[in-house]
Amino acid sequence: MAKLLLNLRNVPDDEADDVRAMLDAHRIAFYETPASAWGIIAGGIFVKENAEIAEAKRLMADYQAQRSARVRAEYAAARRDGSAETFRTVLREQPLRVALTVLAIICLLGLVALPVLLLRG
């Protein structure tokens, strides 16, 4: 029976491509389910054979450790040279988006506080 190896929700395309290439390189049989049109199902990469699941999980753990180290190093380098995204750069590049987000947060906090205010009075 097939087992889910990687849920594709919020997975970047390059990471999914790397996982597919890794499984192909190690000759592990897999298949992929696509995401649904309405976003209810995210899709996933499944290992076909039960005997290969342990090996696929071990390879996935190694890959994720390597990717994590690489991405952390890239982020540290970006922070050192000043090219990392910060709140200030987002505010400068997309002020309307930031303003709408702050407004939405204030509205949601108001909705959460509304029952307390109504029960108090």
Automatic annotation (TrEMBL):
It comes from the Bacteria. This is DUF2007 domain-containing protein. Keywords: Membrane, Transmembrane, Transmembrane helix. The chain crosses the membrane at residues 98-119. It comes from Pseudoluteimonas lycopersici. InterPro entries: DUF6164 (IPR046162).
